[in-house]
Amino acid sequence: MFRYIISRLLYGILVLLGVATLIFFLFNVLPGDPARMMLGQRADIASVEAINRDLGRDKPLPIQYLAFLNDISPVSFHNPVDKTSAFYFDTTKYTSAVTIFNIGKSGKAVIKMPYLRRSYQSKRPVSEILAEAFIPTMILASVAMIVASFIGLILGIFSALFKDGWFDRTALVVSILGMSLPSFFAAILIAWLFAYVLADYTGLSMFGSLYTVDDFGRGEYLDLKNLILPAFTLAIRPLAIITELTRSSMLEVMSQDYIRTAQAKGLSMYHVITRHALKNAMNPVVTAVTGWFASLMAGAVFIEYIFDWKGVGVVIVDALEKYDFTVVMGAVLFISVLLIIINIFADVVYGILDPRIRYS
After folding, report:
1. What is the pTM of this model?
2. Which pLDDT tens digit goes with each residue over 318-344?
3. In CATH terms, is domain 126-359 a member of 3.40.50.300?
4. Where exactly are the structural domains of the chain?
5. Are 137 and 311 in contact (CB under 8 A)?
């Protein structure tokens, strides 16, 4: 199992390197000068050149690329002497850095937190912006995925047990409707219905801000009712897919010989499902759950934007509108790391559920 996990980690690092390379060259060949965007079109040439030097854009593209990889890597190499170098060790940028070893008199290797640069517009560190947006997105995605997984598993199991009955047909219609309904349309429809038409009865708001200022002005508190509508909307599509996958997988497993043997031995249906059928039917469901959770953690842009949920999706949209490329690049890298971690976790779960996978 240890070698299996190490191989997955190495594969994830290679994928992350490819993503970092792609987004660097993509955003550095786009038209537009970030310095002009920060200072305005009437800025003088000296100010523009000073900003470009600060951003490292005055260096050749290959040097910029190597400096970018050096910044985002936890282990990096720096020049602590020459301030004009693209690899100069600036203590205001690299926090919590620990020197591993020195390389002659003008170089050293350090372990540090990955540095995602600063926002062109707000001048704030990108890591700080993403850290603020990550918590609301994590809460929203986690609640939505828990609801979708719990309800989807129950609906899928009962649909398989009562195949071709009224329950199975109803669940099938609901699943098809959930998979075919666009997220942005579902968000608008649910917000209009429950937070506008039925607002007097539900007490829900169209704006899903995680925190609300209290009536006495003592600060902010967590208002969970604001989570209901965006989480429910976000859970619709994964719930439909989990239901159908659970149903089809359970039908396949329930037709196996060992299930009939367990039933012939007199085991109750509850024990047959929980001890034998469900575990062997979980692999495709785990794939769906981890894949959807990764995409939800990446930021459900339409849902967050419509419900004014200050998460990663809203940060990406705002950065694109303002041409704040460092924020977009940092967000894409952040999303890639999340996807890689969740996929590695899914691979490990596969290995636990089916030991044949980690030996193949």
Report:
1. 0.76
2. 888 877 888 888 988 888 888 888 878
3. no
4. 126-359
5. yes
